[in-house]
Design a protein that fits this description.
Layout: E1 3-8, H1 12-23, E2 27-33, H2 37-47, E3 51-53, H3 56-60, E4 67-70, H4 77-86, E5 90-94, H5 101-114, E6 118-121, H6 128-138, E7 145-155, H7 171-187, E8 192-199, E9 209-218, E10 222-229, E11 231-242, E12 245-249, E13 259-264, E14 267-272, H8 290-303, H9 313-332, E15 336-337
Parallel strand pairs: 1-2, 1-4, 2-3, 4-5, 5-6, 7-10
Antiparallel strand pairs: 7-11, 8-9, 8-15, 9-10, 11-12, 12-13, 13-14
Helix pairs in contact: 1-8, 4-5, 5-9, 7-9
């Protein structure tokens, strides 16, 4: 079965998604929706979608759309995901699905009522690079977990939507969602968090953090440390420190390098992510968008009933809970328990 995809919005990430869908097994992009009919039609031609709709509501009413990709601003994620589910569509929603755990619960309740699936779009977690890191950690390659360090910083100009927290922006809400997801994936569910932030003088809305750092308490005396910023050079870093070594991932979120580093004492190994070539990964480099292709293949397979989603309700609720606690800790300057 080929899953027919519709996309809500004419965004930059939508162009990446369109290329991913075109390359993915079991997926086809059939429609795009936007607020401006002329612009949406031009965008649809650009990304190869045969249908263009002047409103999101019109796309949701289309009979030839099985699943919807939601790349809208964060504040609109939950509402439009619920609308799509109620219209009978499966949903892949960009991260974070919501900033409030109660909204995540409401969205999954809507999915259950509609008999459809809802997936939160953390594409990096499905890539063989991430699976290799999890396997190394689970096999004890670096001993017992001590620290997960996760960093994501970008240079976003004033006026960038990520610096407009009326729409769910801010460094922690946007970039921090990646880091929190990594800390949880490798270290388990946090029990408390401390955080600090620098406010954005050009931001709008409440709690507009420009930069932030946090320390999360993990099971077994582990720690998660995150570092995010919207006015810094691009930095994508993940380091998992154990009692007997460390794993270093130089491109943890876009997964383009094809290798991870395992360092134990004076010995450093560079391990290939896909030594057999079974995952059809492209050559290392900035044009490698395999993480998104793999995400759409996995979502399409789940929506077609071939396999269940790798992550579901419980993970999404826990993610929102941890992210919300981190934002609260940064805002109040005091530890927050989960």
């Amino acid at each position: 079965m080929t899953v027919r995809w519709g996309m809500l919005a004419t965004s930059g990430i939508g162009r990446v998604a369109a290329r991913a869908i075109a390359a993915a097994d079991g997926a086809e992009l059939v429609a795009v929706a936007g607020r401006d009919p002329a612009r949406t039609a031009a965008y649809a031609r650009e990304v190869g979608a045969p249908s263009a709709y002047g409103t999101c509501e019109d796309l949701l009413a289309a009979d030839d759309v099985d699943a919807v990709y939601v790349p809208l601003p964060i504040a609109l994620h939950t509402g439009w995901s619920v609308r799509a589910l109620e219209a009978g569509k499966h949903v892949l929603c960009e991260k974070p699905l919501a900033l409030d755990p109660a909204d995540v619960v409401a969205a999954f309740d809507a999915a259950d009522r509609a008999g459809r699936l809802l997936v939160e779009g953390f594409m990096w977690r499905l890539h063989p690079q991430t699976r290799l890191v999890r396997r190394l950690l689970n096999d004890g390659a670096v001993g017992d977990l001590a620290t997960v360090r996760a960093t994501l910083t970008v240079s976003a100009p004033e006026g960038d939507i990520r610096r407009t927290t009326d729409l769910g922006g801010g460094a922690l809400a946007d970039l921090g969602s990646y880091c929190v997801s990594a800390i949880r994936l490798f270290g388990g569910e946090p029990s408390s968090v401390r955080a600090v932030r620098v406010l954005d003088p050009a931001g709008t809305g409440e709690g507009h953090d420009l930069r932030a750092s946090a320390v999360l308490t993990l099971p077994g005396d582990g720690m998660g440390v995150l570092d995010v910023g919207l006015d810094l050079e691009r930095r994508d870093q993940l380091e998992i420190v154990g009692t007997a070594g460390r794993i270093v991932v130089d491109d943890p979120w876009l997964c383009r390098t094809g290798t991870v580093r395992l360092i134990r004492g004076e010995v450093a190994e560079t391990l290939p992510v896909d030594p057999s070539g079974s995952h059809r990964l492209a050559a290392a480099g900035p044009d490698n968008e395999d993480a998104y292709r793999i995400e759409f293949e996995a979502a399409s397979a789940a929506f077609a009933g071939v396999v269940p989603p790798a992550f579901g309700r419980a993970d999404a609720v826990a993610q929102a809970r941890a992210l919300a606690a981190t934002r609260r800790a940064a805002a109040c300057g005091a530890p927050v328990a989960l």
